[in-house]
Every structure is written in structure tokens, then in C-alpha cells.
Amino acid sequence: MRINDLLNVESIRIGGAAATKDEAIDELVGLMVRGGNVVDEEGYAAAVRAREAEFSTGLGDGIAIPHAKTAAVSAPGLAAMTVPAGVDYESLDGEPTTLFFLIAAPEGGSDVHLEVLSRLSTLLLDQKFCARLRAAKTPEEFRHLVDEQETARLSEEAAKAAGAAERDREGYDVVAVTACPTGIAHTFMAAEALEKKAAEMGLKIKVETQGQGGAKNVLTQADVAGARGVIIAADKNVDLSRFDGKPLYSCSVTRGINDPGALISLIIEGKAAVYHAGAGANVAVAEAGESEGVGRKLYKDLMNGVSHMLPFVVGGGILMALSFLLDQPGLGTGAYGHSTPLAAFFNLAGNQAFNFMLPILSGYIAMSIADRPGLAAGFVGGWIAKEGYTLGYLATDMGAEATGALVSAGFLGTLFAGFAAGYLVRGIERLCDKLPSSVEGVKPILIYPVLGVFATSLVMMAVNPVMGAISSALSGFLNGLSGSSMVLLGIIAAGMQATDMGGPINKAAYVFGTAALAEQTVTGNMIMAAVMAGGMVPPLAIALSTTLFKNRWTEADRKAGVVNWIMGLSYITEGAIPFAAADPLRVLPACIAGSAVAGGLSMLFGCASPAPHGGAWVIAVIANPVQYLIALAAGTVVGALVLSLLKRPLPPEQNGLAG
Questions:
Q1: Which residue of 83, 88, 95, 368 pairs with 237 in a disulfide if CB–CB is 3.0 to 4.6 A?
Q2: 308 carries an active-site annotation
Q3: Closest to 597 (Cα-Cα) out of 540, 653, 659, 530
Q4: Which one is catalytic: 113, 130, 180, 338?
């Protein structure tokens, strides 16, 4: 469906006279009624106002697209209006709105309003097009301009689709895989960077993204066979067996974002070594490309565990938080969180996810080191560490009175179990290399799991008392902190979140927060709240700076800044990466300062989050929610002010604000 299929000349007004937001809505609704799309004018107007009450549809840059889906609408429709004097429409940038599109969609029909909203939003990114619409003299001219712009855009999309189909037929010069531990932002930013650079170099590339929602744009055997080589830009375990015999270069996902041209050139110039799959086909991806130190290898193994653990942490944590939110009758009692059937259900589901969290972490650390043979040993080792089984426990009758012999090794013990299992299984594999070839098929299904689980269990039962003592001491230290010590901890943990925007330091802070959360104590929840605040501030500070201090930013920066409002509120720190990469000496110090303020205030106010993710969307389950919002706002303001003071105003021809 085309935009002009919904936009009649009768529903367009040039030079509207509205002076307020309510007047603008009334004028637009009247235009929609004239177009014959509304059966209940008052009901439709009420639905539009209800939508505005949720969040203003003023996009900024003088544009607003109000919309509503309601039974008061008989058929999908559009109305449009220009208001030369401008209206305060509560837009994100605070600027007057001069160009309006109103969308109407019937209840129970298709989501055509969302389809049109998406297409309109794309077209309206072109400020020259918007200027032509504002300058239109008649409704007929306005409608023609819309049709002309949409036709051009559809032609571009068709050409792009045809080009993609042609590339699929002809094959690709380079194929790539991008992946990061969380699979939310870095994965797709690296893919986009590689695709853009390849296009600039006149090359064809296909990039498979291994995100949190699974692999997308998956490489086929034909894609790999026809390519000159493979790029792996990943900070987690990647299966390389399908690339056997191909030139392959691997590196961090960050390098995929920052240096895509050099990576593509390595493949095109034949400088990448040929990869040969062996027993550890998906062990350490950098073995086939750039060299890596012990620290980076350990980090990647750890992140493989963390990436698989995250769904259990997030799902379990938020479900448990909801159990307390829903259990108001049990507030203040020992049954709080499970005193009602509904609350008990959420609490049970969340607790079970948490029970799997630590074994999953250790299992996938071991798998990163020793491939599939390491998984069982790592999982069992993590469970033994979590439950606290010891050799002393075996000496009892293992009844109820034996619980005193259990010494839970906690998060640290689980980490140890993962690495111990992985390297024990690797050692077993090497010892088995000397066995006759006739038992080759028995190794992975019998020898490795039996010996791996046995050796890991024995080691963990022996070291559990030591790891448990260390874990208890650390937990006692954290729980004993108070006053200025807690504030300082909040400042450091939150500041780390902004240091490298989703990199190793950021992930270390997040792992620290989730480890504290796993203890299910007030102190642990406070640490998690401070860490989450620190991760939310960078994109929010950038969004606020691009909104209030427009002359410091280019037009493209300001548009990207609007998106950062949503990313920041959703606790997606990576929204700040493009800005930090472009100007690290100004952006990073400002973001660190803002995050540190937010984390310190969160601790000072005693804010505590039982949820490990979700940002502002889980504010209802955070202890002292108003103070938490104050801490977040203070950090955002500090970060934005520091950033805006460090950045100099750009010349008008660069910031696009001339005239």
C-alpha cells in the first residue's frame, strides 16, 4: 500500500492556524473526518490524545506523526497539515512542530498504521524533502511531493533487493560472522560496518550475525565455497568447522566495528592463513587469525559462559522481581514473594532459572575451552560448586544432618569449575590421542564424558571448602560495607560500565553485579542497581546533549541521539559506541563522570534492584524507585553537561543549523 492511497486532498491543510497541541489535534482530526475515515469524531480524538499521553509523537526537527488505532475509525487513513508559525507539541528536542501527519487505523484490522508510520518516518528523515513539504502552496502539490518521494524510495529499495539477489547468484568476495557476548548491539554494528566498507571498496560481502535471537543471514555452503576468505569478528565461541580449508582471519568484534577495511583487505590480499578444522573446531577463534594473549583467551572463554548465562539471569531475575511486585498481601511477612498462588508461580519459575544460572556458566566456559566434550564436565562441576558438595560430605551418611558438610563455593567456585573442567577435558583428549584408531568413535560418547565428569567432580569436591571460604569472605566483606564505602563501590562499579561501552571492563562490572545479585541479599541488589544505572547513563547523556546543545553535533548525530533515549532507558549501553568511537577523548570522560554520579547516588539512596536488566522498564520492582530516577537523572545531566562543555560548537555548515 502506498502512502497516497491513504492521503486524500481533502485531508491536507496548508498553513494551519493551531497555536497549541490540543488545537493541532482538533484540526487534524477534523481533516481526517473530511476524508471520510472516521465514524466517531469524539472517540477518535480521545484515542489520539490517549496515545499522546503515553509518549509524545513529536519526533523532533519540526515533525510530528500522531496516530491511533480504534473502533472510531472505519477505514485506514492519513491527514496532513503544515503550521508555519509552529506548535509546541512536546517534541523530544523541545522545538516547535511545523509539519504534521495523522494516522488512523481501524480496530481489529491489520497493523497498516504501523507500516505507514514506519515508511513515513523513513521518508521524513530527509530534511530537504520536509522543507519542500513545508513550502508547498496547495494540497495537490503537497500530495504530489509525497508520491514523488515515496516512488524514489521504493525504486531504491527495489534496486537494493535486486542487487542482493544478484549477489546471491554470483557469490561473494568475502563472508563474515559477527558475534558478541550479549548479542544485542556490537554484533550488528560490526556487521553494518563490514557491509558499508565492502560496498565502498566495490566488493560483495555476506555477514552472518549471531545475536541473542539466534543466527541471522546464515552463510550457506555455497556462500563459503565461493568466497575468497572468511572474517570472524567475535568475542565469543564460534563454530569454525564449516570453514575448513578456507583462508580465515579472526579478531574481536570491536575491531570489526572500528577497522573493517583492514580486515577485508587481509582476505582480499591473501594474507589470512588457511584454517584447518580439528578436534577443537570451535575452541578459540583467534587461533586462526590474530594472536591473542592468555588474558584475552580467558576473557573469551568467560564471555562464552556469560553469554549463555544471561537469559537465565535476566529471565529468572525479572520473574522473581515480579513475584514480589505481585505479592502485596505478603508484604512484611516471611512468605513475601510467594504468599499467593500467582506470586508463588513467578517466584518458582524465577528461582528455577537462577538454579541453572551457575551450572550453565561453568558448562559453557568448559565448552569454549574443550568443545562439546567439556560441556558435561563443566555443567556437573558448576552444580557441585553451587551445591557445596565436599569430600567431607561423602564421609557422612549424606542425610539431613550432613548439611553442615556442604560448603557452597558460589560464583567464584563456579568460575573455577568451568575453567578446571575445560582444561581437564583438554588434557584427557591429549592423553587419548595415543589410543588405537579403532576406539576413535568411542572417545566423544564414552571416554571423554566419563573421565571428564569424574575428574572434575573429584577436583571440585576437594577445592570447594577453599573456594567456599573465599566466597564467604568476599560476601561478608560486601555485606559489611556501609556509608561512604558503599557509595565508593557504586561509583567504581557504575563508572566501569561507561569505560568501554560493552567491552571487557563493562562486562566485568556487569558480571560483578550479577554475581552479587545471585547472593539474593539487599547488598547484592544495591550493587546491581548501581551497575544498571551506570550502564544507562552514557546513551542518555549523549541523547540529552544532542537535544539541548544542537550546535555541538552534526545533523546525523542529532538523529542518532534521539534513538539513544530509548537505548539508554532500556539499559543498552552500546548506543553510545558510535559517539565514543568518533570522539573518545571527550565522550568517554563525560560518560564515566555521569555514570559514576548515578551509581554513587543510587547507593547513597539505598536503591536496590532484584532484576539484572530492563532499565527503566523494571522501575516498579526497584527499591526506592523515585530516588533511583533522581540518581539516573543527575548522572545524565552531569554527563551531558561535561560532554557539551568539552565539545566545541561546530561551524554552521557542519552542524546543519545555518539560517
A1: 368
A2: no
A3: 530
A4: 180
